[in-house]
Amino acid sequence: MLFKSIILIVALVTVYGQVPIPTRPDGFAVGPFDAHVVVEMYGDLICPGCKAAWPTVLKLIQYYGQKIQFVLHTFPLPYHTNAFIAAQGLHVIANVTNRDLNSILAYTTLVFENQQLWYNQATINVSMTEVLQSLANFVDKTQITTADKFIRGLQDDEINDHTRISWKYACSRGITGTPSFMINGVAVSADASWSLDDWKSVIDPLLATQRPSFTPSANDDCPTGQTKCTYAPHKTQCCLNGERCIPNVGCRC
User: Fold this and answer.
1) What is the C-alpha radius of gyration for the chain, rounded to an integer number of angstroms?
2) d(Cα 88, Cα 98) in Å, to the nearest integer?
3) Among candidates 107, 103, 91, which has minimal Cα distance to 162?
């Protein structure tokens, strides 16, 4: 009987723990939907690491233009005060502007630039109502939308659900922290330290639609008979004879 009870509990957790299917693909996409390369960012608007990575992400979007698709997913971390409100605010902006990409990127950029206004200790003695109004007034000054429309959006149960589903979707992809990046559905070790050149070293070979060639340098610091494999920015291995250098993986047969 105990064994059957355990099975029932596991089954119930499985059913009720499933992620609701979004009404459309999750995230806010820039670029063609049939792009050969898709870069995804899971970000928290109140995360300092995301703020530090964002300027390079904007350079990435501008540099590649229509050659790639970039998708921003909201993943508010529970230990960043007001992170969920800021994330829901992005969903509000998407809703009131009919998913206008310029407005979505502008809101994201401006919240990052003024992150200190809502980060942890900054609002420790402020009520939730005051925080909501502070963010609404901020958005109103940016002229992306009005404070009234923004507040109404934050009170919209459907938009709240979209924000929750987006968070659950990220969890289902194995995301545990921010910023987290994927290229074509595979996690990469990108973070705020990556430059545009670092991104290019990974994306350009993929855009070439052929296996990238890794040419060892004359002084590759590998033993005789082995070749240097720079498989990701700042990550190298020495490949044995017969092994290939695979991007984001390393030396493999």
Assistant:
1) 22
2) 15
3) 91
Q: For the chain, how many residues are written? A: 253
Q: How does pLDDT run across 112-142, given as a tens digit for each residue?
A: 999 999 999 999 999 999 999 999 999 999 9
Q: Which two tokens stand for residue 34?
A: 């049939």
Q: Residue 206 is which amino acid?
A: L
Structural domains in the chain plus CATH codes: 25-188 (3.40.30.10), 211-252 (no CATH)
CA 122 to chain CA centroid, Å, is 25
The tokens describing 22, both together, are 């979004």
Q: Where are the alpha helices (DSSP H) in 65-187?
A: 83-96, 101-113, 128-142, 147-154, 157-172
Q: Give whole-number Cα distances, 129 to 95, 145, 163, in Å.
A: 22, 19, 19
- Determine whether 248 is exposed, middle or buried from the number of CB atoms within 10 Å of its CB (0-12, 13-18, 19+): middle
Report pTM.
0.78
Say if CB 154 and CB 86 are below 8 A apart.
no
Strand partners, 237: 229
Rounded distance between C-alpha atoms, residue 94 and residue 63, angstroms: 24
Whole-number Å distance between alpha carbons of 157 and 4:
38
**pLDDT per residue as tens digits for the range 197-246:** 999 999 999 999 644 444 444 446 788 878 888 888 888 889 887 788 88
